[in-house]
Amino acid sequence: MALLHTENLDMRFGGLSALEDLNLAVPAGGLYGLIGPNGAGKTTVFNLISGFLKPTGGRIVWDGEDVTGEPPHRLTDWGIARTFQNIRLFSDLSVLDNVLVGFHCRSHATWGEAVLRLPRYRREELDRRSRGLALLEEVGLAEAADQPAGKLPYGHQRRLEIARALATEPRCLLLDEPAAGLNPQETGDLISFIRGIQERYNLTILVIEHNLRLVMGLCQHLTVLDHGLTIAAGPPADIRKHPEVIRAYLGE
Amino acid sequence: MRLLNNVAIFITLAVAYNLINGVCGQLHLGPNAFITLGAYTAALLTMTPAEKTLNFLVTPLYWPLSQATLPFPAALLAGGLVAVAFALLTGFPVFRVRGDYLAIVTLGFGEVVRVLANNLQGVTNGPLGLKGLYPYTNLWWSWGVAVAATAVVAALVNSSYGRALNAIREDETAAKAMGINTFRHLLGAYLLSAFFFGVGGGLLAHLITTISPSLFTFFLTFNLLIIIVVGGLGSTTGAILAAAGFTLAGEWLRIVEEPTAIFGFTIPGIPGMRMVILSLALLLVIIFCRRGLMGRREFSWAGLGRLLRGGLPGSVPGAGRP
Question: What is the pTM of this model?
């Protein structure tokens, strides 16, 4: 049984068809890659799964339930977290606060409890802080906890964005081009980092990537999109040899 | 006395306005609507039936209102609640849009309320306004409310909800991806600010004892906007300092409009000079502290200590929230 699957997912913007007939089946656990040239519709897939776009056709099924058209915050509640291609941190907030915002959606205390600092709120806040610091420790950002997030070096911002997504306690993590703008050294670190969190949190990770070497090394299964169409799917070894994929990437 | 009351009321209004405008980053231009509602509600509820008959000469006041009289605290509370009810009604259309559009929608609601106040003679006595309110507002009430508003808003801003509101200002898309129901959070902040606008309006009415729709034009909103921008958008401390400074300066600068003698020269008073000086002062603040007096920093004892020990100018006097 797939944790997340899409059935004949379609997305058109006016007359432009961004995505046609996508059938993904992401099994629980493991790393799953979504690749394709620019404009292939990869980010559209993420926006659909995370609820930022409503599909014009088809269904998205999460853990056996139809979640098509649900708003983003509810999908996050259900355990789907994401990062963005162009990093979207809360730049003026501190590194720690960024992560604490991630924990907010798991809090039970009401507005009144928060304003009056009632016991449940205080307990939750203490718990959030200690877990937030532990999370920062884990991703190697503990020393920067009080800095504004926008002041971090680029590679650290990427990590913080992933840490912030982890704070929402996801079961499935969508990473949109996590290696964009990183040098080979940083990319290498990132690969082991992603592997590490996948194992530790028993996550299902769906990753969009341009860097073929990265996905080939990282993912157990790949889906290749081109112009909104699925042109190939399978383990990396098969994809590497697939004639359609070679054509899409290298031309005739 | 009246000046100190005024300072307290403007602190209440500015702190509430800063919550929605500075912390949540939504350019809300309709506080005058909520202040009007609070002022009229509270005023109509404290007046005795006899006073009402005296006031409403053109069109008599509609029935239940014409007889009802409540003690001052209950009337203030009612003013706040009526403002909240109006916020609940307008919140749904307002938060369907963002940015400039939100500004225009809220501005529109502000005008709607003013026009209604002008024309619903049977409720508001129209342009004649309400006269001879009992001056219930004293320092206890005005400062009590100011302290309460500040405490509630500061507690909220420094809580998990406040962080979520800050996150919405920084990047609403990312906030949604963090599982924040942005509509609900914004509506919550909007309702809370409306409540304090309403109560502040009630206090204002019972301070100046005569209210009419012309008192609550967009100019009032504009003054509040200046206050929170000068104080530093997002800083409660800044809103308090600027509200006090702005209100006091408006009064104290009256001396420049009176003829004065300096070293034997007699300088004639120039009417309107005080607004010129005030404007220049605002200009200087914005040029030299682009993000307002406090930026987004807050007051803290630790920060004050650092400052007194001769911390570097420009170092962060308020630890805690950035």
Answer: 0.90
